[in-house]
Amino acid sequence: MELLQETGYQYIEGGVCAANGFVANGCHCGLHPDPNKNDLGIVYSEQVCHAAAVYTTNKVKGAPILVTQKNLAAAAGCARAVIVNSKNANTCNADGEEKARKMCELTAKELGIRPEEVIVASTGVIGQTLPIEPIASGIAPLVSGMSPKRHGQAAAAIMTTDTVKKEVAVAFDLDGKTCRLGGMAKGSGMIHPNMATTLNFITTDAAVSHAMLQKALSDVVKVTYNCLSVDGDTSTNDMVCVLANGLAGNTEITEENEAYETFKKALYLVMLHMTKMLAADGEGASKLLTCKCSGAPDADTATAVAKSVIRSPLVKSAMFGSDANCGRILCAAGYADAEFDVHKIDVSLVSKAGVIAVCADGNGITFSEEKAASVLAEDEIEIRINLNQGDGEATAWGCDLTYDYVKINADYRS
Asked: Which CA distances in Å does 85 have to 130, 162, 175?
C-alpha cells in the first residue's frame, strides 16, 4: 500500500511512540488462551496531555467508553495514559463500568497519576463478563516494561481478528520545531462508517489546545474513518483518541491559523493511512477497495454515493469474484441518501493492470470481459464514479466480501 506523499511531511518509524515523551508496552496477562498473544496494552506520556476523542454512535456503548467520557470530563480534557485489553469487550455486562473504573485505578496507582487521567478501552467478545484478575496481575509488569521501542507490543495487544499490526507516523515542522504525530489502530470486522470506527490511539508532541485538538479530530474523522466500511456493522466499543503533550516546544495552537492547518494535515495523513490499513485487513478480505466519487453537486452527495457503494455486500462480492458488474455499482449509488441525476453517471474500474470503463450516461456499455477480469484480479481496486453534475468529490474505503468472512464470524466467540 503506497503512502500519500505530501511536501513538508516525512513518514517515520515509531507508531504511537514516534512523538517525544511517549512510551508503550503490551503483554499477555491471561485473557487470551494463547500465551503468545498480547492481550493487554498501555500508552503513557511523561507529561500531562490535552486529549480529544470521538466514539461510536451505536446506542449500545461499551463500559470503557462511558468511563472514558466521564474521566475526560472530570480531568477537563486532559489525560496521561491509555490502558486497553483485547479478547473481551466489557460490553453489555452489569458490572462493566465497575471493571472499567478498576482498570483505570490499577493503572493510575502503578503510574502514580489520577484515575481520571486514564483512558480505558476494550475490544473482543460482547456480552461476556470481563475477569479483572488477569488484568490486575498484568498491570505491574506491563508498566515496568514500558519503552518508546515497545510500540509494536502495544499495537499487537489490541489485535483481535486483525492479521497485521497497524501503525503509522509522520514528522513535520511548526514554528521551526520538529513535531511528530503517530498512531496505532485495530479493526478487522464490525466496521461501518458511523464514528468512530474500531480502536485508534494517536499521540503527538505538538502543543495543541484541547479545543483545537477536538476540532481537528472531529473534522478529519469525517473524511477518513467515517468513510470506511468492512461489513456494515457499527461496533459498540469504537473509539479514536488523540493525546498531545506539547514537548516539541512549538507555540501552542489555540486558533484556526496556518499552524493549525499544518497540524491538521499531519493528523489527516496518519488517520488516512490507518483507515486504508483497516480496510485492507477486513475480516477475510483479499482486496482493498477504494471508491472515488467526483462530479457531484456537492461534497455531501459525493460522500453519500461513495459510502453507499463501498458498503454494498453485492458490490463487495462482485469485486471478490472479479466480476465487473456495473449494475451492482449503479444500484448501490442509486439508493444513496442524496439527490442527483442517475442518467449522467460514468463508472470505471481501475487497478495496476489498467482501466476499464463499464458505464456511461447511467447505462452499461460494452467492454472486454477479459480485460475487466485482469483489472479486477489485483489486490487493490479503485471504483471511479463520475456523476458529471458539479465539483463535489469524496473517497470511501472498504474490502471485498469473501467466504472467509463468514467462517471467521460463524464461531467468533471461540
From this structure: 10, 14, 38
